[in-house]
Amino acid sequence: MDKGARDWLRRALRGALFIFIGVLWGGISWGAELPVLYVALIPQKEVAESLVGGRFRVKALLPPGADPHTFEPKPHQMVDLARARAYISAGLPFEGALVPRLRGAAPELVVVAGDGGIDKIALTPSEELFAPDSGDTPRGHSRPHGEDGGGDPHFWTSPRRMAVMAHTMAEALEALDPAGAEEYQKNLGTLEGAIAALDEELRALLAGCRGMAFFVFHPAWGYLAADYGLRQIPIEVEGKEPKAADLARLVLWGRERGVRVIFVSPQFSRKGAAAVAAEIGATLVDLDPLAPGWMENLRRAGHLLRDAVK
């Protein structure tokens, strides 16, 4: 073997040795696919991606613009989900049927209650706007599609509650992947710091808005309102567009209390909200509670509400 061939073989063997050592140390994974972690919502996905540090591939079950109250996973999503390492739920209505199906179809899939430990608030009632029906539920009690009147599921509009979910996720990741525990805890600390800073920013931003009411079509902002002393008033009635009499009461109530802003989102109709806004001179604002960039989305909501009282 000539000198050139010997040098080439030596370099090749040295490279193979380095690759072998890297694989043993877990630092290199040539061609290996990352395990998949599924979550329900985009805000959860962003929290998970802040924690995993490249050790998992994170997917959100709900696509942008989907209604989380009526969503049904497609067959190909169920197949992909069944192949994942874990699913972190959000406590949404559709998951009541989904999670049992997953446990039966994919018993090895780890299912974690992502809303575990989160103190839930009641869905926003508006009894003062509408007279009760003969049944147990007042007409003004905004019961979104498919919900049973339990706790409000929209906890991701509260920084404090998202911090609780982040802690739950970090614990789940450590159980799934003990080798990454140190990285998960480090990333959790960084994320908790960012969430605490957002909470303080919103608290200062909305300090002058305490007691302020704002209209929404669908009551997805109840936790933001509860955290910072505001009042969310839904326009939908039992998950539907308000009738003419309901609109009249909303207009009267909004005028008397000087409501200046109405939030609408792409998952729901804006017809009733637009009618109310036109009558009371309020600004109709597109604000998707499930938009990418959940922290910036809450910051934008805070600025919109603060500006509404100027």
Task: Describe what this molecule looks like in 3D.
There is one protein chain. This protein has ten helices and eight strands. The chain has 310 residues and is α/β, with parallel strands linked by helices. The strands form two sheets. A four-stranded parallel β-sheet has the order 2-1-3-4, with helices on both faces. It has a four-stranded parallel β-sheet with strand order 6-5-7-8, sandwiched between helices. The longest helix is centred in the middle third of the chain and has 25 residues. It starts with a helix and ends with a helix. About 12% of the residues have low confidence.
Helical element count? 10
Please write the string of helix (H) and strand (E) elements: HEHEHEHEHHEHEHEHEH
The total of beta strands comes to: 8
Which percent bin holds the helix content?
Answer: 40-55%
The biggest beta sheet, please? 4 strands, parallel
Radius of gyration: 24 Å
Low-confidence stretches: 15-31, 131-149
Distance between the termini: 85 Å
How much beta, percentage-wise? 5-15%
Average of pLDDT: 84
- The shape, in one word, is globular
> What topology, given as strand order, has the largest sheet?
2-1-3-4
Structural category is alpha/beta
